[in-house]
Design goal:
heterodimer; A: 563 residues; mainly alpha; 17 helices; B: alpha+beta; 6-stranded mixed sheet; 3-stranded antiparallel sheet; 9 strands
C-alpha cells in the first residue's frame, strides 16, 4: 500500500485529542466519512431554512397584493432563498457530502488526497452560512436577487450586499478547495491496478464537476471582488453612471453561474448511475458513452453562459452561437437518459424508495430539459425570460433533478452509513408527497410565465391568483413531505432494522466493508473492483437468441411460485 | 395456433401513434395569451413546433419508464439478476444522431423565426442611429426591430421615447410633444421605441406582443413592433428593479 498512516490514526489505540463518538461530527475531523456527513447534515439544516423562506414566498403569492411581507422584505427573502439553496444546500451536499463519503471508497483509498484542506473546506461553510443569515438581523439582508445585478446591487443597502459577497466568496473558496481535492484524489490516489475506465460513474461525474468548479468559480470570486469595490470604494467597473458597463458583470457572473447548474446536476447524474444498476440488477448500460457524455457536458457547459442574457445587450451573432451551443447540450444529456432507460430495461427492478426517487428524477429532469431546449431558442426566450416559466424550468432541474437524487441517495446509502435500514413505507410516503407536491407547485408556473407573470414580484395580476394558489398548495405538500423523511431518518438510526454489511448485494467498493465502515475504510487491503457494475446473468448462462423477454419473465414468475 | 403480432409492428404502431398525438397536442393546446402584434403569430408558430417535439419526447420517455417499472418489477422473494447487457454501440449511435439532428433543425428553424421577428438587425446599426439621432448618446443598441424592414412600405414608424425608472415607465411622443404614463399606439402601424434607463436595469415586456427587452443604463435600445389588435395590454417590468414593480 502506498498510503501512509496519518497522525490521527496512530493514537486511535490510546487516548486521543480528537473527540470520539458523536462529538467527532462537531470537530475538525479529517476522516472523509465524517466530513461527508458534516456536509450532508449541515446542508440539510440550511435546506430547512431555505425551505422556510420558500414557504414565505408561496404564502405571499397566495394573494395578488403584497400583504404578508413588505415588498423590501420579500426581495430579501427571495435573495436569501436562492443563495441558501444553491450555495449552502445543493452544491455542498451533492459535491462535498456524497463526494467526500464515496470517492475515497471508489478509488480504493483510505482518505481524500488532502484531508486537512478537506476539513477546512467544510468548516468554511457554517460560518459563511450564518454570516449570510445574520445579515437580516445586522442591517438588512441583500435584496438584489441571487444574481446581484448592478446597478441594482449598487443602490440597495450596502451592508447586506457586502455580507452577501463575503459569504459567497467563502463558499466559493470552500467549493474550490473541494474541487482540487477531488481531482487529486481521483487522478492520483487510485489503488494500484485500478484503471480510470473501471471507476464507478460517480467518480467521472465528480471529476467533470471539479474541473468546472476549478475553472469557473474563481471568475465569480473576481467579479464579486470588483462588485464590492464598486459598492465600498465607488469605483465604476459595473456602474454606468461612472462609465462602467453593467452587461460585463452579467457575462462574468454567468460564466460561473451557468457551469454552476452542471456543478449541481452532474454529481446527481453520477449518483443515479450508481443507484439504478444496483436496484435493477443489471450493469450500467453504455459505460464508455456515459463517460464521454459527462466530458461533453463539461465542455459545452463552459460555452453557453450568454443564453441567460438574450434580452440583454448582446449582439445577434452571439445570440445565435449561444442558441446552437445550448441546444447541443441536449445531445450528451440525452445519451445519459437513454442509457439509464436501457439500464432499467429487462432488469429485476426493486420498487423501493431509492428507485422511485431516481425514476421521478428522470421524469422531472426530462421535463426540465425539454423546457430548457425551448428556452435556448432566442425568439422563445424573449417572451418568457425573467418570468415564472424560467422559475418553473430551473426548479425542475435543481429540485426535480438534483434534490430528488439527494433523497434517492440517502435511501440508498443510509444502511452503509448507519448499519440500519430506513423504513420503506415511510420512504414511499415521502416520495409520493414530494413527487405530487413538487409537480403541483412548479408545473402550473409554466403557464403563469407564458401568460405574463414575471418572476421576483410580490404582487401580480389578479387573473393569476387561482394558479398561484395551486402552486402554493403544492409547496405546502412539499413542506409536509419533509416530516416523514425526518421521522424516518431519526427513528431508523436507533430502531431501524439492522442492515448487515451489504443489504443491496451491491458490487461497488463501499459495500465491500462493514456498515458503518471502520476508520480508514477497510480492515485489510482495499478490494480491487474491476467491474463495479458486474450484475446480471451472463449471456452465456442462458441462450439469448432463443429466449424472448416474455420467456425470461415467465422464468422469473415460475421461480417465484416455486419458492 | 394463432400467430402473435410481431413486436416490431407493435412498436412501429406505437411510435406512429405517439408522433401523431404529439403533433395534435402541439397544434391544439393553447397556453399563450392573446396575440396582438405582427410577430406574435410568428412566435406562436415556433411554440407549436417546440411543444409538439417536447410532447412526443416526454410522453415517450414516461411511457418507457412506467412500462419498465411495471413489466420488469422484482417480486419480493426474487433474488435473481437481469441480463448482463453492458451496451450496444449501434443503439448509442442512433440515440446520439437523432437528437443531434432534431436540435440542429430546431436551432436553424428558430434562427429563421428570429429573423422574421426582426431580431437579426445588427447591433449599433448606422441607419438606426441616423433615424434616431440623439446628440447626447454615442450609440443606440438594437433589440427586436422589424419596423425598419416594414418602413419600406411607405409606412413611417411612430417614434416613442421610453424612460424606465423606479417604479414606472414614462412615454414621450416627440412628434406630438406629449408625455404620458401609458403607451398608446396606432393599430397596424409600426412603432419604434427608444428605451432608456437612468437608475437600474429594467425590462420592457408586453406579453401579448411576445416582446421583451432589457433597458440597461448607459445603453439606449431600440425596440420596434406593429400592433395588430386593439385592446388594453399590461406593460410589465420583468427585471428585479427594487422593492416595487410597475404594471
Amino acid at each position: 500500500m502506498t498510503i501512509s498512516l496519518t497522525p490521527e490514526t496512530a493514537p486511535a489505540h490510546g487516548p486521543s485529542l480528537q473527540p470520539q463518538g458523536w462529538l467527532r461530527y462537531l470537530s475538525f475531523s479529517t476522516d472523509h466519512k465524517v466530513i461527508g456527513l458534516q456536509y450532508l447534515v449541515c446542508g440539510f439544516l440550511f435546506y430547512l431554512i431555505g425551505g422556510a423562506l420558500a414557504g414565505a414566498i408561496r404564502t405571499e403569492l397566495l394573494t395578488p397584493i403584497s400583504d404578508f411581507l413588505p415588498r423590501q422584505t420579500y426581495n430579501e427573502v427571495l435573495t436569501l432563498h436562492g443563495t441558501v439553496m444553491i450555495f449552502l444546500w445543493i452544491v455542498p451536499v451533492v459535491n462535498g457530502g456524497f463526494g467526500n463519503y464515496l470517492i475515497p471508497f471508489y478509488v480504493g483509498a483510505r482518505d481524500m488526497a488532502f484531508p486537512r484542506l478537506n476539513a477546512v473546506a467544510f468548516w468554511l461553510i457554517p460560518p459563511a452560512g450564518l454570516l449570510l443569515i445574520s445579515s437580516y438581523f445586522i442591517a438588512s439582508a441583500p435584496e438584489s436577487g441571487w444574481t446581484a445585478y448592478p446597478p441594482l446591487s449598487l443602490t440597495t443597502p450596502a451592508t447586506g450586499q457586502i455580507i452577501w459577497i463575503l459569504s459567497v466568496l467563502l463558499l466559493g473558496g470552500s467549493s474550490i478547495f473541494g474541487g482540487i481535492n477531488f481531482i487529486a484524489t481521483i487522478l492520483k490516489l487510485r489503488r494500484p491496478g485500478l484503471k480510470l475506465m473501471q471507476l464507478p460513474m460517480y467518480c467521472w461525474a465528480m471529476l467533470g464537476t471539479s474541473i468546472l468548479v476549478v475553472l469557473s468559480t474563481p471568475v465569480l470570486a473576481g467579479t464579486l471582488v470588483l462588485l464590492s469595490f464598486d459598492i465600498i470604494a465607488h469605483t465604476g467597473f459595473f456602474n454606468p453612471a461612472l462609465g462602467g458597463n453593467a452587461v460585463v458583470y452579467q457575462h462574468l457572473f454567468w460564466f460561473y453561474s451557468h457551469p454552476a447548474v452542471y456543478i449541481m446536476v452532474l454529481p446527481a447524474f453520477g449518483l443515479v448511475s450508481e443507484i439504478l444498476p444496483v436496484h435493477a440488477r443489471k450493469p450500467l448500460f453504455g459505460y464508455t458513452t456515459m463517460v464521454y457524455s459527462i466530458m461533453g457536458i463539461v465542455f459545452l457547459g463552459l460555452i453557453v453562459w450568454a443564453h441567460h442574457m438574450f434580452t440583454s445587450g448582446t449582439p445577434p451573432w452571439m445570440r445565435l452561437f449561444f442558441t446552437i451551443a445550448t441546444s447541443f447540450i441536449a445531445v450528451p444529456t440525452g445519451i445519459k437518459f437513454f442509457n439509464w432507460l436501457a439500464t432499467l430495461w429487462g432488469g429485476r427492478i426493486a420498487l423501493n424508495s431509492a428507485m422511485l426517487f431516481s425514476c421521478a428524477f428522470i421524469i422531472n429532469f426530462v421535463f426540465g430539459g425539454i423546457t430548457g431546449v425551448a428556452l435556448a431558442q432566442v425568439p422563445f426566450d424573449i417572451h418568457v425570460h425573467d418570468t415564472y416559466f424560467v422559475v418553473a424550468h430551473f426548479h425542475y432541474i435543481v429540485y426535480g433533478g438534483t434534490v430528488f437524487v439527494i433523497f434517492a441517495s440517502i435511501y440508498h446509502w443510509y444502511p452503509k452509513v448507519t448499519g440500519r435500514m430506513l423504513n420503506e413505507p415511510l420512504g414511499r410516503l415521502h416520495w409520493l408527497l414530494t413527487f405530487v407536491g413538487f409537480n403541483l407547485c412548479f408545473a402550473p408556473q409554466h403557464w403563469l410565465g407564458l401568460n405574463g407573470m414575471p418572476r421576483r414580484v410580490a404582487e401580480y395580476d389578479p387573473q393569476f391568483q387561482l394558479i398561484n394558489q395551486f402552486s402554493s398548495v403544492g409547496a405546502l405538500l412539499m413542506a409536509i413531505s419533509t416530516l416523514p423523511f425526518l421521522i424516518n431518518v431519526v427513528m431508523s438510526a436507533f430502531n431501524g432494522e439492522p442492515a448487515g454489511d451489504n443489504p443491496w448485494r451491491a458490487l461497488t467498493p463501499e459495500w465491500l466493508t462493514s456498515s458503518p465502515p471502520p476508520v480508514e475504510n477497510w480492515k485489510g487491503e482495499p478490494p480491487l473492483v474491476h467491474e463495479p457494475y458486474g450484475y446480471g446473468i451472463k449471456p452465456g448462462d442462458i441462450s439469448l437468441t432463443d429466449t424472448s423477454g416474455r420467456d425470461l419473465w415467465r422464468l422469473g414468475a415460475g421461480s417465484d411460485s416455486r419458492s | 395456433m394463432v400467430m402473435p403480432i410481431p413486436p416490431a409492428i407493435l412498436t412501429l404502431l406505437l411510435g406512429m401513434g405517439l408522433v401523431l398525438s404529439g403533433l395534435w397536442v402541439g397544434q391544439n393546446v393553447s397556453l399563450l395569451p392573446l396575440d396582438a402584434s405582427s410577430n406574435a403569430p410568428v412566435y406562436d408558430e415556433l411554440f407549436k413546433v417546440l411543444f409538439s417535439i417536447g410532447t412526443i419526447l416526454f410522453i415517450g420517455i414516461i411511457g418507457l419508464i412506467v412500462y419498465s417499472l411495471v413489466r420488469f418489477r422484482r417480486r419480493p422473494s426474487d433474488l435473481s439478476d437481469g441480463v448482463a447487457i453492458e451496451g450496444n454501440l449501434p443503439l448509442e449511435i442512433l440515440w446520439t444522431a437523432i437528437p443531434a439532428i432534431v436540435v440542429l433543425f430546431v436551432g436553424i428553424y428558430s434562427y429563421d423565426i428570429y429573423e422574421r421577428m426582426g431580431g437579426m438587425t445588427p447591433l449599433n446599426d448606422h441607419s438606426l442611429h441616423a433615424a434616431h439621432a440623439d446628440a447626447s448618446d454615442s450609440r443606440t443598441w438594437a433589440g427586436i426591430s422589424p419596423a425598419m424592414a416594414e418602413s419600406d412600405d411607405g409606412m413611417a414608424a411612430v417614434p416613442v421615447d421610453v424612460t424606465a425608472m423606479q417604479f414606472a415607465f414614462i412615454f414621450h411622443y416627440p412628434d406630438a410633444g406629449i408625455t404620458s404614463g401609458e403607451l398608446h399606439v396606432p393599430l397596424g402601424q409600426p412603432v419604434a421605441l427608444t428605451l432608456k434607463a437612468n437608475d437600474v436595469i429594467h425590462a420592457f415586456w408586453v406579453p401579448q406582443f411576445r416582446l421583451k427587452q432589457d433597458v440597461i443604463p448607459g445603453q439606449p435600445t431600440l425596440l420596434s413592433f406593429t400592433p395588430t389588435r386593439t385592446g388594453r395590454f399590461p406593460i410589465v417590468c420583468a427585471e428585479l428593479c427594487g422593492p416595487a414593480v410597475t404594471s
